[in-house]
């Protein structure tokens, strides 16, 4: 029996709305951090690390949802056919392996399944495609450090992996990246 309505083939939710909801969680974590006194901030650096993780999770959720939405449109005419089901199966396998959606992985998926390089759209203001790809990959690497190393030191005098002002930049960056992807 051919399965035609899976999570990957059903009409996806609005990717931008999903991102907006998720990024709002990261912004709430930063608001909580900002309300703390300096000594409390020192003891609660975890809020900044969590905000970074939430920011990158918002990106990951967005790009997966966006790719699904694009595929849903492309496969409409083939839905229920052998070819459509085969392509959907391959796409679903690829999406399910999309951890840490860096510029290379997103480029590969968009070329393979959408037949265009979505990273070509990634430019705005003072950012060109190469700068965007590099910055995206740096943020993903930082998330990896935060997740796998946690605190770099238990000594409060040592610098933390995640700087407060860098989080504002990251959130702005990913909002711009989502907008550029949706062009």
Largest sheet: none
Structural class: mainly alpha
- In total, how many beta strands? 0
Q: What percent of the residues sit in helical stretches (DSSP H or I)? A: 55-70%
Assess the beta-strand content as a share of residues.
under 5%
Overall number of domains = 1
Give an overview in words.
The protein is mostly helical. The protein has one domain (15-181). It is built from 7 helices and no strands. It has helices at 15-35, 38-43, 46-74, 82-96, 103-114, 129-149, 164-181. Helix 1 (15-35) packs antiparallel against helix 3 (46-74), helix 3 (46-74) runs parallel beside helix 5 (103-114) and helix 3 (46-74) crosses helix 6 (129-149). The relative contact order is 0.15. The model is unreliable at 1-9 (pLDDT under 50).
In short:
By secondary structure, the chain is mainly alpha-helical.
What's the layout of helices and strands?
Blueprint: H1 15-35, H2 38-43, H3 46-74, H4 82-96, H5 103-114, H6 129-149, H7 164-181
Key structural traits:
disordered N terminus, mainly alpha, 183 residues, 7 helices
């Amino acid at each position: 029996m051919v399965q035609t309505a899976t999570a990957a083939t059903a009409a996806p939710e609005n990717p931008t709305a999903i991102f907006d909801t998720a990024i709002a969680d990261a912004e709430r974590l930063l608001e909580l951090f900002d309300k703390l006194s300096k000594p409390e901030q020192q003891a609660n650096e975890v809020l900044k690390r969590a905000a970074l993780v939430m920011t990158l999770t918002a990106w990951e959720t967005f790009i997966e949802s966006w790719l699904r939405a694009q595929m849903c449109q492309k496969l409409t005419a083939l839905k229920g056919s052998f070819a459509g089901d085969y392509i959907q199966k391959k796409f679903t396998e690829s999406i399910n392996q999309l951890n840490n959606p860096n510029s290379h992985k997103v480029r590969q998926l968009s070329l393979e399944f959408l037949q265009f390089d979505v990273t070509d759209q990634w430019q705005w203001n003072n950012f060109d495609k190469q700068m965007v790809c590099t910055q995206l990959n740096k943020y993903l690497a930082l998330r990896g450090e935060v997740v796998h190393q946690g605190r770099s030191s238990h000594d409060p005098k040592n610098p933390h992996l995640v700087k407060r002002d860098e989080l504002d930049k990251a959130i702005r960056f990913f909002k711009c990246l989502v907008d550029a992807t949706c062009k």
